[in-house]
Amino acid sequence: MKKFFQVKIPYLIILIIGVTFNAISAEKVEYLKTDWSFKGLFGKFDRGSLQRGYQVYTEVCSSCHSMKYVSYRNLAEKGGPEFTQEQAKAIAASFEVTDGPNEDGEMFTRPGKLSDKFVMPYENVKAAQAANGGAYPPDMSVLVKARGGGANYIYSLLQGYEDPPAGMILDDGVYYNKYMYGNKIKMANQLSDGLVEYSDGTKATVEQMSKDVTTFLMWTAEPHLEARHQMGFKVIVYLIILTVLVYFSMKRIWSRIETEV
Amino acid sequence: MSEKKTNRRDFLFTATYAVGAVGIGAAVWPMIDQMNPDASVKALASTEVDVSSLNPGKTITVLWRGKPVFIRRRTQEEIAEAKSVKMEELKDPEKDEDRAKNPEWLVMLGVCTHLGCVPLNDKGDYNGWFCPCHGSHYDTSGRIRKGPAPTNMEVPKYEFLNSNTIKIG
Amino acid sequence: MSDHEYTPKSKFGKWFNDRLPLLSLASHLTDYPTPKNLNYWWTFGGILTFCLITQIVTGLTLAMHYIAHADMAFESVEHIMRDVNYGWLIRYIHSNGASMFFLAVYIHIFRSLFYGSYKSPREIIWIIGIIIYLLMMAAAFMGYVLPWGQMSFWGATVITNLFSAIPLVGEGIVTWLWGGYSVDNPTLTRFFTLHYLIPFLILGLVVLHIWALHVPGNNNPVGIDIKKPSKDTVPFHPYIVIKDGFALLMFMIVFAFFIFYTPNILGHADNYIEADPLVTPAHIVPEWYLLPFYAILRSVPDKLLGVVAMLSAILILAALPWLDTSKIRSAVFRPLYKQFYWILVADVLILGYVGAMPAEGLYLLIARIATAYYFLHFLVVLPVLGLKEKTLPVPLSITESVLGGSTNLAVAKNKESLNN
């Protein structure tokens, strides 16, 4: 067995180097950190945080940022915010969805259904750009996965607004953010203490809202994260058991040879 | 090699095979299940249809879950004809009352139960539907009367939201 | 192929086997005499077969849901990730599977380099292997384009533009590859078609690779020719099967860890942004397994020569059986070659590292030195070493090296691994 581990060491080194290539190529800024409940082998989402995060997204972000790959039905699905079916239906119905064409060939609006995707704030990218000084507010469905720093980056960015350092001149509609790539961002600071009112009594500080909405965005980017973690643990335990069985079978089979030699 | 040793070896190999087989089975399942209807397909539950402009004796066809649904506003003669049929005459006995809760309205999947073609309206020997593929005749209640189809045309789950709107599914 | 004639026991078996000798083939495969001193580095052939089959099976299932259209590709991938039953699992297996495939193939190649498995009479096996490796790179590159994210789009743009380095016809070739004046929908659909085709070509070549292997039989850590079957060999089944199986399971544990716990770490975040022909990402980095060649490309200041250098770096491997002039196969008995071997490993890792860094300043200098050394190793070190090196005495048979209490440490180690 000792020899076995020796053999595997160079293999692990190569693996680690492979992994670090990507880690190195990521940004080097120190992001703010918090205790994400979804990290780790058994990581799960905090339902309360997801529901609050949904509230922040709807009341604040969604006026500019679309979320076109997420459906209202997802809100009631296992592993998500887990709103009840009725709550999710009510949420969907509170949005006006364009449907059609009807028999007369015209588009019409109706209350949203569970099967509808999240309603978009703008009809298309061009409209979104026109309304936001040329900058397209990115779709938020997979935003966490689309940024090198992941959840920590989004969390930090939301709290990273500061006065620009002396000497830096910012154009109109450009803001200073210490976590943004190049430090210049076209989104103004959106969060302020008490901006939303949480129904569960949680105090809506900027930090709390940042954490909640980032958790929510993590879920929209990885809706099956919980199932993945749970399955992963089972698969790895299974593989270890089978490996041990195969190891002993192998020893037994090879023992036939040793006696012959 | 002693007998006891052989047994232990057999147990080890059997256990290894068994655990391995379980794993292969578990690994194959996702590859099979991915072909089942996905979450977005399952979510497309219902279709609402406005039937206010439909006159007696007319049928409209709407799409529900990718299949045609016939909605027919039946005339009094058609209803009477459907109700008068004796159960013994039917291949798949079903009362008209059970198929059309509100006798004026017949809602059913427009799919021939033989091999899935769409039957034609107002055709066939029983004043109902006729399937052109293999010649199945359905009556004014959509029941199979003649031809190779084994069962009546299926009635989906539906309800009247109000007097003008039917919700299918 | 077979060393002994096989006759099926049953009458039907004999009847069938006379017409299609499948049973003879199966018998050949199970009885195939394999050197008994193979260490764990030899298990990667089996692991690679597993990787190929995994990629084909998951790829086929993904293709049932994927839509190869510039407007819908990104969305269809999200559909797979969100709605398709186990879609997320299948896609993560496929995307991480590509990385695991390359990890295994690099180990397999470097095992060959260490033990001289490319030398006579195994040149054809080696060259088929190089072709498989090239096809793997093509398949991986085109597969990375399919999600139609930012890295997909710009990776495709950069790599296809390599062909524009060809004098006179370059521009025409690039336009032809694209099917337009930029990477766009026609490019995506043809890449999908080829991405679907190539794995089956690889599968065919793998059959040839194994066929060619079964003619001379496996090389082994001692690197000597052995009699088959003999005391030096064991039948493939069950001895090698169970050992390969054990190694495969170890490999699968690592694989599973990536799939379930860090499924996106080997990819680039920018590929979760839908392709935008108007915005290039801050820095374009290929997947990790292509980085050494990317570094070679960038270390040459001339466009055409850079492309030539990159291609030569791969193709030079095909000439390896003739560049290495040593009569001794295994590095175990070549003390000097062993040192140069590890320098080459380090050199390739350094190339990989600088390939991920911006091509400027110190990184560029390191890349140039490492590139020069890479070619030096194959073109100068190997030919000269084979003629000048003083090698250690080689045992006459595996059994002798195992039992003879060889003073050579490495041989003793092989004995140990056998005892596992």
Spatial strand order of the main sheet of chain A:
1-2
Number of helices of chain A: 7
Strand content of chain A: under 5%
Low-confidence stretches of chain B: none
Computed over alpha carbons, the radius of gyration of chain B is 26 Å
Proportion of β residues of chain B?
Answer: 25-35%
Number of helices of chain B: 4
Cα(first) to Cα(last) distance of chain A is 21 Å
Task: Give the low-pLDDT segments of chain A.
Answer: 1-8
One letter per element, helices H and strands E, the order of chain A comes to HHHEEHHEEHH
Overall spatial form of chain B: elongated
Give me the side-by-side strand order of the main sheet of chain B.
5-6-7-8
Q: Give a count of the beta strands of chain A, DSSP E runs of length 2 or more.
A: 4
By helix and strand content of chain A, what is the structural category?
A: mainly alpha
Mean pLDDT metric of chain A:
88
* Percentage of residues in helical conformation of chain A: 40-55%
Overview of this protein structure:
By secondary structure, chain A is mainly alpha-helical. Chain A is 44% helix and 5% strand. In chain A, strands 1-2 form a two-stranded antiparallel ribbon. In chain A, strands 3-4 form a two-stranded antiparallel sheet. The longest helix of chain A has 36 residues. Chain C is mostly helical and 420 residues long. Chain C has 17 helices and two strands. Chain C has a two-stranded antiparallel ribbon with strand order 1-2. Chain C is globular.
